[in-house]
Amino acid sequence: MKHPFLLSVALLASCNAAPAPAPTKESAPAASPAKTSALAPTEIVAAAPAADWAAIAPSDLLVMELAPDAKGAARRVVIQLLPAPFSQGWVGNIRALAAAKWWDGTSVNRVQDGYVVQWGDPDGEDKAKAKPLPAGLKVVPAGEYEASFLNLTGKGFQEFNPWPQPQQPPSKAGNNDPKTVDEAAGMMDQAMGSLLEGIMSARLGDGYAPIVGFSDGFPVGADMRNKETPRAWPIHCYGTVGVGRDYPPDTGSGAELYGVIGQAPRQLDRNIAVVGRVIEGMEHLSSLPRGTGDIGFYKTPEERTLILSIRIGSDVPGLPAYEYLSTESKSFAAYADARANRRDAFYVRPAGGVDICNVPVPVRRVK
Known about the structure:
Shape: globular
Structural class: alpha+beta
Number of helices: 5
Largest sheet: 8 strands, antiparallel, barrel
Strand order of the largest sheet: 2-3-13-11-12-5-4-14
Order of helices and strands: HEEEHEEEEHEEEEEEHEEHE
């Protein structure tokens, strides 16, 4: 489509530095950081008991086989489809497209740096050349970019709010009216200091949703201000998979998909259909050459990456089993807290908060 919506740190040191003088008392090397018993997020995940992990059904996976790379190595991308109540019209279309083997022989057509990788029919804009779609695909209304928050009942929604809130100073009993001008000035200075401290330490929460949390292992936003029609929606994070579309009222069929390869484009939330996330093989998308045309589209067919097949996981022989760390578990709560407040030995100062997209839900193969 022409209009789809769609750490490493390098340490440099001088090689020709003069020999260092013998250390003196003043120049002696700093002591090693104090040891801490706090676990890093990866250690918390590694220690999570089996009961804290939730299985992903093979029927909820979409398996994309790309053409081998330049060295002949296979490239497989595994996508977990979004569960109800979100985007089920598009997810149903995707299942039908995979069953019809519609994507076989299509390609990755767009790679925009810091944004998305997009795949589907490279001739989709040309009605004379476009690949016919399977019969029976649904036209899904834009209203289904969201869902009723009430439909998350029983889905294990867990609000996520690691940001510390400013503390109000305790009120003193009795009459606190100032007795002198100097006392009034002192009380004013104290009040202004407390206010400034609160402003400096407060976190305003998520910038795109009044409430954020996790449901069935996926990050979601929610707005509860209208009590009659509270809404919820899936969030665009790194690795999110969505449906490419043209200008409204088009909402896309699901035949053209994209994967986020840059900083979370949260401005797309509620403007486009989210249908899943990449759980394995993300490197095969994020490492593709960037497109040479407008908004990352490839100018020539030779630049594209061929898609050999896309199938539902239950139709792929020998597919490994996968599971995610349940977002309702104590292990996930500890993991999320550690992502927001790193207390392990490497860190000097805990951040005091974290964006929800920087709390990726751990997924692993079942041993």
